[in-house]
Amino acid sequence: MRFRACIALLLFVSACATSVPSPRESTGLDPRLANLQRAAKLPWTDGGRCVVQEASQPWSVLVERCFHALDHDRIEFHDTTGRCAVASAGAAAVGLGLCVLAAPEIVVGAVIVTGVVVVGFAIKETLDAYELSRGRPEVRPVPETRPMPETTPASQDSSPKQKPESGPKGPDLPPLGPIETSERERRRRCEPIPGPPRGGNNLHNKCANNIPNNTFPGADVFVNGKNFDALQLATRTLWEVKTDDFDKHSPRSRRFLAEVKLPEIKREKMLAEAYGYNFVVGVRSPAQKDAILELDPDLTVVVMDWC
Asked: Cα–Cα distance between 63 and 59 in angstroms, integer?
């Protein structure tokens, strides 16, 4: 509660200090669309699903509810104005980052992202729906649960030309062959696909590359819609590496940091186990291992002595 009060105080001070509204605010842009466009510039580990779900909320509320879904290994926060240092005095470093990101306008240099940001599939799908509905009020945004974003344009293109009364006409009908497509998609998502690392963090890459018996050193592994940091194919084990400087924080801040990371770690474990893989979290500190296991003793956490 104290931390949320600090955030509220910061937002009040920021709003008073901002004398000139941004161009988007002055043009009356749909707040939900503005939030989606703003979030599209950040790296999300869940493809932006949390952002889409909370997009109708004020930006500060969206940030508070979805902060855990950010790819924290690829993002740095800098309190360039000094307001967050005052509002969140005594809070954890994670709280400082949340404070910076929740500000009404992000100052240049306050948020730094390493690597190229690929717009989360859920955010992109919803933005595409907004684009398609422009000038056509009767078309509502596509639900976030669509399995394949790329099918949206195809269905929109064919609908004006095909009348419902014409009846099923083979390949023009979207439901054709759903069982075969689903099974093919399942096999594809289960197959490990190596690819370039997501991001420019040398320490993170070093820790992942040197995991014993890493099948694809120097590469991420894409399984079930998620890029994992490493794969030990012999034991079908997927790894996620956390390189936070955990020991520099106070015990209270350490627990807060572990709680922020836990939802995404559990989601990664679920994605791996859904296709028969084991899942391991690699950390650099015994204290971080203990903090994670205290929250969820069913996880497998390994201290990476090699990095």
From this structure: 6
